[in-house]
Amino acid sequence: MTTQRRRIPVNEPVIGEAERRNVLRCLEQGWISSEGAFVDEFERTWAAYCGMTEGVAVSSGTTALELALATADLEPGDEVILPSFTIISCVLAVLEAGAVPVLVDCDPDTWCMDVDQVASRIGPRTRAVMPVHIYGHPVDMDPLLALADRHRLRVIEDAAEAHGAQYRGRRVGGLGSMSCFSFYANKIVTTGEGGMVLTSSPETAARLRSGRNLAFGTERRFLHTALGHNYRLTNLQAAIGVAQIASIDERVRRKREIATRYTDRLTRLPQLQLPVERPWATNVYWMYGVVLREDAGIERDELAARLRDRGVDTRPFFVGMHEQPVLQRMGLFAGERYPNSERIASRGLYLPSGLALTREQQHVVCATLEDALR
Ligand SMILES: *Cc1c(COP(=O)(O)O)cnc(C)c1O
Question: How far is CA 91 from CA 69, 145, 318, in A?
Fold first, then answer.
């Protein structure tokens, strides 16, 4: 007898009764645009959770980054330092602001920006630095903040993958001058599509709010003194977000539980490099990534194919920004090499890590992986 087992997905959102109730309230009351009480509540509760005073909800993590960079007073040719190993949204936001992205490599173990490399990349045009908390592990922020302070650089965190993660007891997203979040369906807290910029500066928040909403005039609505965007989040989306935030502690606890189970079992496989958690960090393991060691005897894509054939979905790691054809064609990062980023981009993949993953499914993932590596 053959049993038809369901594929084990990399990630699936978990939507509860409270989300349904909140959305129905929007529909019943007609508050379906970006006007509505859920948007305010979502902004207030998320900012407070992260230790900032102001939240500005937007349509995605990418538009959060674009809006934050647009509000960072960058002149054409100004430089922003960021990791090569990240999602392209980060570079898009820098380019959109008319600035130049300047890269650093990642740490071989945390996969986050190597903070030691930042100092050597600071020049007369450097204005900002963008730490990205990769796959749930925080960047080593204190040395970065000290460096930024000394050189008067803005620090714009990308905390899209690290909802609830902590750095020396402080929440990420509350450590820089601005921070950006995504609430895309695969993020720890989701609104389907959505994002937010946090700051503790009321002046910056006012500019973010204006920029999110077409920079309408304050005296005469249709008289504009700045160019804005339509990056608004709907009340329907925020209604989901408000319900999701209420369960953030449980979400983070589950992510960490899934990671502990994987680490306990997979640590016996010498072919795999597993995620780390530095003593100063609370990793939320947004995705549980593994990197195949050079002597593993199998390439990443072959391993992914074997797992897929046996019903286990995985995703390859990011490809570094200096390896992107579209950016190279623009003349960016010519001849630059970031060996740690290149290594994990070609050897890393992440395993099913969704909040709905059952203990049984996780056992199947591990057994399949052990088998595929035998
Ligand atoms: C998901 C993600 C984004 C982009 O968010 P979207 O909501 O998909 O636009 C930005 N940065 C990082 C690090 C991400 O993981």
Answer: 10, 21, 13
